[in-house]
Amino acid sequence: MGLKAVFNLASKDIRAELRTKHTINFMLLFSGLAVIFFSRIAGNYVAAAPEMGAGLLWLVFLFTGMLGLGRAFVKEKELGTFDGLKLTPMSSEEILAGKAIYNLALMLGIQSIIFPLFIIFFDFPIQGSVALAFGVLTLGNLSFVIVSSALSTLVLNARARELLLPVILLPVLFPVIVTSVSALNRVLVGGEGFLNILGEIKIILAYAVVMSVIAALTFDFALEE
Amino acid sequence: MHAIELRDVKKRFGALQVLRGVTLSIEKGEAFALLGPNGAGKTTLIRIVATLLRQDEGEVRVAGYDIREEAREVRRRIGVVSHNPFLYEELTARENLEFYARAYGVAQSRVDEMLERVNLAEREDDLVATFSRGMKQRLSIARALLHSPEVLLLDEPTTGLDLKGRQDFYTLLEELLGEGATLLMTTHHMDEAERLCSRGAVLHSGRVVAQGALDELKESVESLEEAYLRITGEGNGA
User: Fold this and answer.
1) Distances in whole angstroms, Cα of residue A32 to Cα of each of A66, A70, A94, A121
2) ipTM score here?
3) Where are any strands of DSSP class E within B163-223?
4) Neighbours of B188 (CB within 10 A)
5) Which chain B residues contact residue A81 at CB under 8 A?
């Protein structure tokens, strides 16, 4: 796999997104509103049982990701540029990796704004390292974008693709979200360090690797009409 | 070795048999027209040759490479221009070509060369969204020619172009033909086929119903248009 080709595709998408801000604006608006809603509805419960916080935070990322991550391929399909992309000598793995990097950039942008916003709006009593919690979220989001990027191509030719994608995504993402929520809780609420959550980190990393391999193996099939 | 060779190519979409055993060969440096009514299978055939679709049966070779086994090699050797220009509207003309140049591993100097060639150097920093249909199509040719392909596949490339746009497009294609490019094009415009191509085939219901030199196809009739209507049976009801 050529890294040049991967970053060429990712930087093209990031440049186009920074120019139009079509996807990122909606994702930010949605996630910001979700944090405010959740804090008004469940703020008192989270204050009484802080373990709920990590789950709610992940729900915000999950819904936001479902809203925007599929767009990376859908936009190419709608504009008719997907064929142009497939006509280049880029391998399917390079196309998938380029799109996943673009999606990760989107999610990291959202995470950088929403995570502090979440802490502020919930007045969250952080016991552990914020940097470690951010790292755990990033790993979780890495797995999320790998799976969502790969699955969004599977539903690309379906009529109700926007409805189909979340239905397929949720069960596949279940293990990584549960593990990420557990690790996040141990850091944010339990005040535990890196070595204590190494088990969860290994699971999330293994999940990301396994999903990358599966995505690479099935992506050729997904690209075919 | 033929530039493009198709042997008994069949393609089905669900219950619909779109191609029913198409056999064609196109020589290097030849301009070949693929004619036929809507739904004849022309676009499906071009998409198969372009590696965008897989045939169900049969063999397709481009520049000697099998499109199923050596798709990446084929992609390095073809340029595709269709009614869809495959351009990113939120990027400038230059950014579009730079992206494709990097994807093909072509030197960035080639971008300047192509922008000059299609007369878009002065608009290189403008967003493609601000371009007219004709300008987009010229930029699309620049995109398709960036990597100096051996074979150019054109799928109704002048759809939506005005008269001036079409004339500019023909001039550019004639220059390319003069340089020895191989061209396979689908078109509804008989004048387009006559102007640019020496040989052609008429596709009807997924079958080649006539093929040969365009002069031969219209031998017994006044025009290629008349020959086309006679061959496809579309003139009977008139």
Assistant:
1) 15, 20, 32, 10
2) 0.87
3) 182-186, 199-204, 207-213
4) 15
5) 86-88
- B202 in helix, strand or coil? strand
Number of H helices, E strands in chain A: 9, 0
- The answer to whether B197 faces chain A, any CB pair under 8 Å, is no
Note the residue count of chain A.
Answer: 225
Structure confidence by residue, pLDDT tens digits, A31-84? 999 999 999 999 888 888 888 999 999 999 999 998 888 888 888 888 889 999
Distance from CA of B104 to the nearest CA of A (A): 6
Minimum distance, in Å, between the CA of residue A77 and any CA atom of chain B? 10
Helix, strand, or coil here: A67?
Answer: helix
For the segment B184-233, what is each residue's pLDDT rounded down to a tens digit? 999 877 888 888 999 999 898 899 988 889 888 776 555 666 777 777 77
CB contact under 8 A, B84 and A91: no
Q: Can you give the residue ranges of every domain in chain A?
A: 3-224
Beta-bridged to residue B30, according to DSSP, are none
Rounded Cα–Cα distance for residues A95 and A207 (Å)? 21
pTM: 0.88
Does the beta carbon of B84 lie under 8 angstroms from any beta carbon of chain A? Answer: yes
Q: Pinpoint the alpha helices (H) of B41-162.
A: 42-49, 71-77, 93-104, 109-117, 133-145
B43 part of contact set with chain A, CB < 8 Å:
no
